[in-house]
Amino acid sequence: MYSYLVLRVVAKLLMPFILLFALYVQFHGDFGPGGGFQAGVIFAAGFILYALIFGLQKAGRVLPRGILRFGIALGVLIFAGVGVYNLLVGGKYLDYSAMAQNPVHGQHLGILLVELGVGVTVASVMIMVFFTFARHRNTKGSD
Amino acid sequence: MALTVIAIIRLRNLYAVVMLASIFSLMAAAIFVILDAVDVAFTEAAVGAGISTVLGLGTIALTTSEEKKPTRLKLFPLLVVLITGGALIYGTLDLAKYGDPNAPAHKHVAPTYLKEAPEKTGIPNVVTSVLASYRGYDTLGEVTVIFTAGVGVILLLGNWRFIGRRREDNDV
């Protein structure tokens, strides 16, 4: 698998664009189609492509499992944390109007943060699931 | 689409089944685009056609790529499937026509959302504002479901001997 030159070059060319597109979908979800779920999946797809072509070891060095495990929890924590923060500043749980001086700004900020949390969790879970599947296969010695 | 589904049911080669399921998802995404549900189409294309296919192939690599032949015709499951399918089709008879402005779905909270959401949240994409703000609890629940799924996969398949990065690199 490691000697396919064309695949390696094309994957290397595509990687930045896939990740950039994921970020675009993430932060442009307010204006066009997209949002945390889709962005997370696209982000994960970029890394899965990398892992498929360059091998698990290299991909694991870019994104160690510790970080992924951390990311899975971090996303949910961001989401729930935004809700708790709203309680602290005198609003209702997950009602972002109290987050800024202007309720509209508060809503905007809240939605952005919440989508970020969704994206982090979705991306981490997808990459983690793929790594776990692939590693399981490698350790069985069939690859 | 119907052809794809029939082929998925008939085929015993799971590799082909995974590929056909991916094609099915892509066609479903196209239908969502035609129905103007771009956000849903996006998700369907990314999750259904993209990640599911990779995970399906991963599962095949872990298990086997040929489905076992059924030993005999099982009547009870067939009956359950027929009754459920019949009930679902019967249910669709009551649905409002596509694009009917008087459908209950367009009368309840939808007009409020469409009118208020851009002003109250300052976000032009109503789908995003409904998803993250008006229905924030639901979305939090969805993220928790994904979190739980991830934890479940790690617990089931995670190789606990390889915790710690350095040992991983040496062993693989």
What is the mean pLDDT of chain A? 83
Approximate strand percentage of chain B:
under 5%
Strand count, sense and closure of the main sheet of chain A?
none
Structure classification of chain A: mainly alpha
Gap between N and C termini of chain A: 11 Å
Order of helices and strands of chain B: HHHHHHHHH
Write the layout of secondary structure elements.
The complex is a heterodimer of chains A (143) and B (172).
Chain A: H1 5-27, H2 36-54, H3 56-62, H4 65-88, H5 103-139
Chain B: H1 2-10, H2 14-34, H3 38-62, H4 75-92, H5 104-107, H6 110-121, H7 126-134, H8 136-157, H9 165-171
Helix pairs in contact in B: 1-2, 2-3, 6-7, 7-8
Q: Explain this structure to me?
A:
Chain A has 143 residues and is mainly α. Chain A has one domain. Chain A is built from five helices and no strands. In chain A, helix 2 packs parallel to helix 5 (103-139) and helix 4 (65-88) packs antiparallel against helix 5. The longest helix of chain A is centred in the last third of the chain and has 37 residues, at 103-139. With 172 residues, chain B is mostly helical. Chain B has a domain at 1-68. Chain B is 74% helix and 0% strand. Chain B has helices at residues 2-10, 14-34, 38-62, 75-92, 104-107, 110-121, 126-134, 136-157, 165-171. In chain B, helix 1 runs antiparallel to helix 2, helix 2 runs antiparallel to helix 3 and helix 7 packs across helix 8 (136-157). The two termini of chain B are 42 Å apart. The interface between A and B is large, with 63 and 51 residues.
